[in-house]
Amino acid sequence: MLRFALFVLFFVSVAGFGQESSSNSESQAPASVPAAEPAATPQSVSAEVAEAEAAIVKSDWTAAEAKLTPWLAVHPADARALFDAAYVADAQNRLDDALGLYRRAADANPISFEAHVELGLLLARQGKPADARPELAAATQLDPGEAGVGAKARAWRALAEIDRADDPAWASEDLLEALKLSPETEDDTLLAASLADQTGQSEAAETAYRRILAQDPKSAPANAGLAHLLIAHKQFPEAETFLREALVQSPEDVTLTAQLAAVLAAQDKAEALPLFQKLHSTYPNNAAITRMLAEVLADAGDAAGSDKLFAGQLAASPNDTDLLVAHGQNLIHLLKYAEAYTVFDKVTTLDSANADGWSGLAFVASKTNRPSVTLHALIMRSKYLPEVPSTYFLWATAYDALHDKAAAATYYHHFLDSSAGKSPELESQARQRLQLLEGKK
């Protein structure tokens, strides 16, 4: 079902309950007190701007704004004043104003490092990585001036956070550039470990996580990251041992608790169910926890309880094929075949390559006396998955219902050969049908 596909979702979703990530630390704004900016030609600083900057140093935003607003009304292209005004707006969380002012500052002085970097960081905080990237990339190629190389390293780190989603190898290069300018931090090591994991360098990722844990055994991101690696490689006993030890040091860590619950579920351990129930009661709106609890309930035989949870999520995401397949499987266990048929028909309409959808549709079509649909579903399924005893039986009964005796007999034989005593009731039925089919030849 959904379990193993959800491990990654689990880690990403639940990790939000824990420590702030390095991407968060890179995007706190504003970053630096305004300083003299490099310009194409020397320019003096007006008394109004100088007084505004003195107020900014004291975090007196009202006084700074009182100086900058009238000055900019008369001097709208003053890059330094525009940056200062953007900084003030940013500090007051007037993000739309800050965005416009940073853009104007960058346009007025295209070689302003601070304008580009702060504009890029603000766009990143607003969830606009495609817009943020060119600004940050521009900043990395400029002289940081009085902001210093540390600020430039910050731009490289922010670029790495953006690039990690689409090109982890390039993100690694970004991080290396940052490390040329400033010492490695724990966040850098965590990012390097994550990038190594993304690029299939599991040993390097594990080494990085363990290096952090040797210095800080309670590092929540490192513990979660190492557990994620173990889970991804299906090293469930090792992951369980590791997570139990980590939870001794951090018993309230939700990410580690969720990972332990997932590991227990993967090993079909009864302890998983109460653990997921506790997590769900604490975080009822967390989609990953809800899905996993629904999975565990289904495995425990509580199809009705499981389906109640899936139905709630489907109300919000009616075209989520994973949810629909799980819902359909629960309906089968509840013997609601007509309803299940509608669900699986929807799955295969939404995604014609969904093998689980075709499997489910073949079964419920058989249960609702639609042999032609059963055969079509089995043909589609065979494009993606090999035959198993149950599908051979469905082929046989569908052809039998359509009075194609030769094909039915062939598939009954395939079923008996592949089942080999594993399904005695169905095998008995197959033999009876074969006697009738072959006896009439």
Which helices and strands occur, and which strands form pairs?
Layout: H1 3-14, H2 22-26, H3 47-57, H4 61-74, H5 79-91, H6 95-108, H7 113-125, H8 129-140, H9 149-163, H10 168-181, H11 186-198, H12 202-215, H13 220-232, H14 236-249, H15 254-266, H16 272-282, H17 287-299, H18 303-316, H19 321-333, H20 337-350, H21 355-367, H22 371-381, H23 389-401, H24 405-419, H25 424-439
Helix pairs in contact: 1-15, 1-17, 3-4, 3-5, 4-5, 5-6, 6-7, 7-8, 7-9, 8-9, 9-10, 10-11, 11-12, 11-13, 12-13, 13-14, 13-15, 14-15, 15-16, 16-17, 17-18, 18-19, 19-20, 19-21, 20-21, 21-22, 21-23, 22-23, 23-24, 24-25
Question: Mind explaining what this structure looks like?
Answer:
The two termini are about 45 Å apart. Helices cover about 75% and strands about 0% of the residues. Helix 3 (about 45-55) packs parallel to helix 5 (about 80-90). By secondary structure, it is an all-alpha fold. Among the domains are: about 1-20 and about 200-280, Alpha Horseshoe (Serine Threonine Protein Phosphatase 5, Tetratricopeptide repeat), CATH 1.25.40.10; about 20-185, Tetratricopeptide repeat domain (Serine Threonine Protein Phosphatase 5, Tetratricopeptide repeat, Alpha Horseshoe), CATH 1.25.40. The model is unreliable at about 1-30 and about 35-40 (pLDDT under 50). It has helices at about 5-15, 20-25, 45-55, 60-75, 80-90, 95-110, 115-125, 130-140, 150-165, 170-180, 185-200, 200-215, 220-230, 235-250, 255-265, 270-280, 285-300, 305-315, 320-335, 335-350, 355-365, 370-380, 390-400, 405-420, 425-440. It is built from 25 helices and no strands. The longest helix has 16 residues, at about 425-440.
